[in-house]
Structures are given as C-alpha cells and as structure tokens.
Amino acid sequence: MNILIDIGHPAHVHMFRCFAHEMIQRGHRVLFTCRDKEFELKLLTAEQLEYVSFGKKHTSVLGKIWDLIRFNWKEIKVARRFKPDLFVSHGSITAAHASFLLGKPHITFEDTFNMEQIRLYEPFSEVILTSDYEHPLHSKRVLKYQGYNELLYLHPNRFTPNTAILQELGVKENEPYVVMRFVSWNATHDMGHAGISFENKRRAVESFSKFARVFISSESPLPDELKQYKLPTSPEKIHDVIAYASLIFGESATMVAEGAMLGVPGIYIDNTGRFYTRDIAQKYDLCFNYSESESDQLLAIEKGVDLLKHKASHEYKRKNRAQLLADKIDVTAFLMWVVLEYPKSIQQLRLNPDIQQQFK
After folding, report:
1. How far apart are CA 57 and CA 163, in angstroms?
2. pLDDT at 234
3. How far apart are CA 203 and CA 160, in angstroms?
4. What is the pLDDT of residue 308?
5. Is there a common fold for 2-155+329-359 and 164-325?
6. For position 68, what pLDDT does the model report?
C-alpha cells in the first residue's frame, strides 16, 4: 500500500511519524509532502522519512491564496508519480483536493475546528477523525475516537522520555524548569490575535525564574533581551524536554496538550481557545485556559507562579495522567487498523463505536 501524508505544521510530523514507521516496517510505502515553514524538514530528516518539500509559505492573504493553488498543483504532480492508495492528513486542504481529483480516499484528523479551512476540505474527504468531546463540526463524515491527537505519538506504547535530555539542558535531576512557547501568528486562523505582549513575556520570565529555570521555544526570532533563554535542544527532542518540565506556558495549544499527555500541567493563552484544552482542563485538571486580555495574561502568570511555588505534587500529576490514559486509546494502533482495513473499518466504526476499545 502507498500512503501519502501531507504536513502543514511541525506538530503533524510528530502526529504521523509513529504510524509511518509502523507501516514501513510492515512493507508499505509512506511519502510525506510538506512546506518549509519552521522545522518540518529537520524533523522528517531526523526521522529518516521520505518527503517532498513544496518550499516556503507566504504570510499575506494574496500569498496564501496563491499558495493554495500552487501547493494543490504540486501535490497532484507528486501523487501522480507516487500513486497513493489513500491520503492522510490533519485538516489538509491540499491533500483533500488532490485525493478527490485522483479518485482516492482522504482520511483526516481535526481538532482546531477552523471552519474556514474545514469548508475547503470537508466535501472532498471520506473520513474526519475527531476526539470524543463535544465540538461544532456536525458532519456525516465525522467519526469520533477515544483519544487526543497527541496520543498518536505520546501514548506510553509510543514514547519513553530520555533522561539524557537533562544533561543537554544543563539541569540537575528534579531541578524544576519551565518551557515557554510563543507562536508567530501567521496562520489564517490567527488573524485578529496578538498573543502575549512583550512586556508580559518578560514579566513571566522574570516571575518564573525565581522558582525554576526558563527555556523558550519560539516560532519567531527572540528579541535580544530573551535570547539567553532560547531552548538549546534540537526540535526532535522537544518531547523529552516537555516530559521532565514542571510547567508548560504560552500560546501553543499543542504543546500544552503534549504536556498533559505526559502529566505536566500547562497554561494556554488564546482568545478563542481549543476544545481539547478545555476538555483536558475539565476532565483532568492538567490545563489552565486564559484569554489574551491584559488582565488574563497577568492572571496566567500568577497561576504559573502558584503552580511552581507549590510544585503540583508528583502524585497529583501521576493520578491525573493515569486517569487520562485509562480513558483513552493508543491512537496510532487505531489509525493503523482504520487504514489497513479501510473501508471495512469505517463501516464497523459507524455500526459499533466501541470496537475501538480493542486499542486500549
């Protein structure tokens, strides 16, 4: 079987790398298509996965429209050579359009629920896999699974953190540290967002530094004042970094959710929020959501300080994470079954959603 996976963000490489390696080991061929956005190419290279890059993305509105046209064309050209049996993605408009034109199924994950993007790929996708919380996408194509996207690569069956990362970071065992994540706000769904102000980024660093080491991961170049806090590790080691952190703080819902999967509390700052961060907050108390307002940014910093001062106990984190894992499935094992048994797997899921219990 030939499987084409389209990547729109570095997190998508992590999402599908375990699946890709498993499928390759079973004798199938997997090809990734991607853009040179942040460090997708580094991640794919580090994982020794076959890929084709479509080059840089534009940030202007007109540039994004042009990108949609040229990326679609490039995807079709690559697919014609590769001859995929199906396409897999996380909400890829490009993969959906190419799969439709080539008469192949497109299986996609969705957890951001940006309707302007969904409208462009939903009619051309056979299956949209979403987590089992309430969300606004009510489509006959939706199938809910018992998990989060981050469990594709952070389920205990897929990931064991490497303690060697502590030496690379220059921290001692059990020494607290915070991972702060800032985004560039260049995506289409980021319009109208400003994120954390520079003053509050600086205030957060100063406040957290009283109780822990601080490391910053940023999509955009850091100002001189904050460069000393830049995370020194390579991108493929980010989950080892997160696993031993005391707190995740910032503008990335994905990184906060990743922390939760590993039992690390996170603070997420965003005006619109994410359904999955709210779900994690309500069910497992491993995520705390705040808006981008000045008052909420200050409250978020206070909450971070509180968590660091009182050091949310290892027992608290262990129990909450254990409950999360008990409720959820090994999503990579589930995806492999969906793909290998397609379309029978989809028919079975629609008739009996509990069939996915076999992947716990």
Report:
1. 36
2. 93
3. 33
4. 92
5. yes
6. 87
> What pLDDT does residue 336 have?
98
- With contact defined as beta carbons under 8 Å apart, do 338 and 356 qualify? no
Under CATH, which architecture does the 164-325 domain have?
3-Layer(aba) Sandwich (3.40)
Report DSSP state, residue 161: -
- Tokens at 53, concatenated: 């890059």
CATH superfamily of 2-155+329-359: Glycogen Phosphorylase B; (3.40.50.2000)
For the chain, the residue count is 360
Token code pair at residue 82? 């590769």
User: Apex CA 122: angle with CA 274 and CA 118, to 5°?
Assistant: 35
Q: How far apart are CA 175 and CA 121, in angstroms?
A: 45
Say if residues 208 and 249 touch (Cβ distance below 8 Å).
yes
- Give the distance between the most distant pair of CA atoms in the chain: 58
Q: What's the token pair of residue 308?
A: 């660091």
Contact of 181 with 252, CB cutoff 8 Å: yes
Per-residue confidence (pLDDT) for residue 189, from 0 to 100:
46
Write out the DSSP string of 290-342. E-SSHHHHHHHHHHHHHHHHHT--HHHHHHHHHHHHHHS--HHHHHHHHHHTT
161 contacts: CB under 8 Å, gap ≥ 6: 239, 240, 243, 244, 262
Cβ 182 vs Cβ 221: under 8 Å: no
Strands, sheet with 106-109, edge to edge from the N-terminal-most edge strand = 51-53, 29-34, 2-6, 86-90, 106-109, 127-131, 142-145
Rounded-to-integer distance, Cα 117 and Cα 135, Å: 15
pLDDT digits (tens, 9 = 90+) for 129-145: 999 999 999 999 999 99
Give every residue of the chain whose pLDDT is below 50, as ranges. Answer: 185, 187-191
DSSP annotation of 60 reads: S
Domain boundaries, the chain: 2-155+329-359, 164-325
Q: How many CB atoms lie within 10 A of CB 163?
A: 11
Q: Give 213-276 as a DSSP string.
A: EEEEEESSPPPGGGGGGB--S-GGGHHHHHHT-SEEEES-HHHHHHHHHTT--EEEE-SS--HH
pLDDT at 193: 54
